[in-house]
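## Example record

The block below lists the input lines for one assembly entry, exactly as stored, with component labels intact.
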Amino acid sequence: MSPGTMPMAVESPANGGQEQTPVVSVRGLAKTFKRESGAMTAAVDDVSLDVAPGEFVVLLGPSGCGKTTLLRMLAGLEIPDSGSIEIRGRRVFDAAANANVPTEQRSISMVFQSYALWPHMTVAQNIAYPLRRSGRRISKQQIAHEVGRVLELVRIPDLAQQYPNQMSGGQQQRVALARALVSGSDLVLFDEPLSNVDAQVRERLRYELLDLQRELGFAAVYVTHDQAEAMGLANRIAVMGAGRIRQLASPREMYENPTSRYVANFVGVSNEISGTIATISGATATIETPVGSLQGRLEGTAAAGDEATLVWRPEHATVSREEPLDGARFSAEVETVLFAGAHNEVVIDVQGVRARAWMHVATPIESGARVWVALDPAYNRILVG
Amino acid sequence: MFSVVVAIVFGVTAVYPLLRVLMGVFFQDGSFSLAPITQLFAVGGVGTLIMNTVIVVAVSSVCALIIGAGLAWLNERTDARMGTFTDSLPLITYLVPPIAGAIGWVLLLSPSAGLLNGLLRGIAAAWGAAPTSGPLNIFTWPGLILVYTLYSVPYAFMTVSAGLRNSDTTLEEQSRVSGARPFRTFWSVTLPSIRPALGGAVLLMVTQAFAMYSVPVIIGTGANIPILSVKIVKLLNFSYPPQLVQAIGLSLVMVILVAATWLVQSRVLKSGRYGTVGGKGQRFEAIRLKGWRPAARGLFVLYGLFAVVLPVVALVLVTLEGFWSATVNWATLSIKWFVQAVFGTPTTLQALGNSLLLGLIGATVGMLIAAIVSVLMARSRARWLGAVDGAIKLPSVVSHIVIGVGMIIAFAGPPFMLGGTLLILLIAYLIVYLAQGSVSTDAAVSQVGADLAEASAVAGSGYGRTFYRIYLPLIMPAMVAGWAYLFARIAGDLAVTALLGSPSNVTVGYLMLQTFHNGSFGQLAPIAIVLTVVSTVVVIGVIAISNGWSRRRNRERAVTKPIELVK
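Predicted structure tokens for the full assembly:
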């Protein structure tokens, strides 16, 4: 097995597989850019990360958070200012030792946001290109066989002789993916590959990509700003902000137990109520807010008297027109009602702060009405800072 | 890295002769002196000289940009295109070397003996008037600017065509969908999106216009319009002792003017992305001109007439006559004068052979170097590369004459001992003419999206393979056009030959200069014809093939098939 190809049987990390060398191991990466104005911005700031074999890691964050820069550093397209990168246990970058293995020797694959298909080559030639890397002897028949194989995998077997500019965006995307898969690399990088594709095609491609990844077993590092995409694809998500990883966890863990307001806001819909911590008992805290005393699980350390925010999600709140008989509850005024198919999205005003709640479509509700909101303390999260 | 070595070696070679010259000037006999600058003002009429040159260059460049860009747009975006004819028409003037064109126009519109004038006088006589000279005169400001413009148009056409071909047509489609008529789309969307190409065209035209020697020496002298380049040659070749110091001073003026243009252009190229070839599909449909089409096509024909047909016809007629006069005696036309002039003189044949050889080698080597450097510049962020790029572009601005002198000082004697050889000519040609090929490759390379090269690196290709398999095919149109330009310029070169040529290694330019100074326009005609024919055949062949490739590739997008939304 030549280096860079995936092992036959891969234990998914979710199954608690055996201890294996991480495919990617990043320590203390940092990169600063100089803006036109002369100011220095830290695009990536002290990032450390491991990617296990066969793991799907998503780098999630808004524009400018450093996720694309981080990905490009893994590929060798950007040179970090400090830190080190190991791929398959081999050090490909070390700022301290001034060592850098150039991109073409890292044995990785990458799908670009713009697809980066070479317009002067046919689909077959585009896909065959990585197979012809220097120093690798491979016969024409074998090339044709491999190209055919991946074209089947991405479900466009008939497009081999077309040119990229004869195809739709979705088809071009598949070609780009096929090209990334053909050399059988165990690490594939994705730079927002689905952001230029329209919504329906995006969903379909997402499912197919997930199937392929599970079937072929390559490790994936995937950059996106779309949190639904991140949650659907990832084994673990790294939410990034201002060049740092804010939280690294499985989608469910991140959704249910965000460690900061930034993460809570970015992943899923979150509603916030600010207040002061009144009491703390074990993992639970009580917070005094303008709408009353609320309970929730405390994230991180705090003391009574600290400023904190209570975060709640629409699906864990009960919204009714009649006042509940017991339990913590508060009232709010309905601003807008948006029909969302499976439920009504109700935008309410809680003491001047906008929040989003769900109501059953059968319940009549209109803008201007007053509703009562009862939160579930088991799902409330209290975050400091 | 091989390419870095190439770039550095060439950069150094390009600048070295200039440095030697500069050194020799500022340090007269081992001590510092500012003679070039002070003596500059002692040159008679230097203010008028500079102003004349600037006017001629500026006016002709603007006119040529309008004509060239307009024709390029008509060819690339509308159905006025007539296949290879319109594709290569403006390029044909590359193939008619400026000296041949200048001679042709003199033969046509010289006040007393001009053929066209003779014809017009004949027509006027039929109406009762009897002018004795004119009515038109090539030896005037409009005449000079006309010929300058005619030979600047190809640069604009070539660069803008390449830019249009590689730009993102969805921007223009968007404009048309929004209801804008073709001209409005052209003005507000197309033009801004090909800014790099326009900038490249302007730089190219201005650069070569300043350095042009053959046209101003033939027409400018007769018109009594002193031009910078002619003056410099006069100071070096026709004064005894050669006024090196003053020549350098005047060259410095030229350098400053062109350097300013270059700075502006590099700003334009670096700021932002224009219609990059980003690996996404492009589809377009040619704008149908309907009633305007014959007029549009007529523009092409008109240009061809002025730039090629008329001067060549004059050259042919004079060749067939064996001498030059305003009236043509059709009975005495014979090809024997031509045969005698070309094949009867061994020097002519030798000159042709040498020029062709130099052209072929020079053009190929030159364009490869240009491409290597352009790609290096695009992919690497090292700042010293900018200096190398500047070193490569600088010589083209300085009068070829000064470079020639520098070459003599630097390479003719020990330790290189290249004096009088073809090699010294080749090196000089590369230094002088490469820059303009490299402007064209710069623009082409800047339109290849960086992600295409990155994808190649990710796929395991080092710099060499990426250059060969990704960049080269994608910039091929610019490479070919640049090759054609280099070939034509080298084969038909005049200025460099004047200094570095030797009787033992004759080139066509050397031959023509000798004939010109011996006073016979008529004898120049056959040589000019041969040069034209050979250049034309070689270059048109090359371009037609290349256009066939790239059109076939782009034609894959359906012009008539509706856009499909199949996923």
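Chain A touches chain B at residues 75-77, 102-105, 107-110, 112-120, 129-130, 133-134, 162-172, 179, 183, 201 (CB under 8 Å). Residues 13-108+185-256 of chain A form a domain with the Rossmann fold fold (CATH 3.40.50.300).
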